[in-house]
C-alpha cells in the first residue's frame, strides 16, 4: 500500500511563497509519476502540476506557469511544489498523487489516472 503525506501548507500573504512537500512510502518511488491537484469546496479537483518518473519532464497548469516549480528527489522519496507569487485564488486544499501506470516520461493531468492520494494540506492566501 502506498502512503503519501503532504506538508508545508499554511497561511501566507498574497505575493508570498510556500513550499509543499509530499513524502511517499510503500512502493518504489521512482516507478511513479507524481501530480499535484487542488480543490476548493464546491468545485472539482483541479490539476496543478505533475512530474515524470525520472523528473526530466514537468507540466504545469496554465494559471501556475512561471509561479510554481515542481521537483522531486528520488533518493528522499519526496516531491516538492514551490509556490511563488501566491494569489488569493490559490487558496485551496492541495493534494499530491501517484501514478504507477506510466513509463518513464509520461505525465497525466487527469485525476482519474492517479492511483494513490495524500490527505491534503490547506493553503490559504490572504489578500
Write the layout of secondary structure elements.
Blueprint: E1 3-7, E2 10-13, E3 18-25, E4 33-39, E5 46-51, E6 58-60, E7 68-73, E8 78-83, E9 92-99, E10 116-117, E11 121-126
Parallel strand pairs: 2-11
Antiparallel strand pairs: 1-3, 3-8, 4-5, 4-9, 5-6, 7-8, 9-10, 9-11
Number of strands: 11
Number of helices: 0
Note the gap between the termini: 40 Å
Radius of gyration: 13 Å
Q: Name the structural class.
A: mainly beta
The overall pLDDT, averaged over residues, is 95
Task: Classify the helix fraction into a percent range.
Answer: under 10%
Shape: globular
Strand content range = over 45%
Topology order in helix (H) and strand (E) letters: EEEEEEEEEEE
Main sheet, how many strands, which sense, barrel?
Answer: 7 strands, mixed
Regions with pLDDT < 50 over 5+ consecutive residues?
none
What does this structure look like?
The protein is mainly beta. Helix content is 0%, strand content 48%. Strands 2, 4, 5, 6, 9, 10 and 11 form a 7-stranded mixed beta sheet that branches. A 4-stranded antiparallel beta sheet has the order 1-3-8-7, with no helix packed on it. The mean pLDDT is 95.
Relevant terms:
mainly beta; four-stranded antiparallel beta sheet; single chain; 127 residues; globular; seven-stranded mixed beta sheet
Outline of this structure?
By secondary structure, the chain is mainly beta.
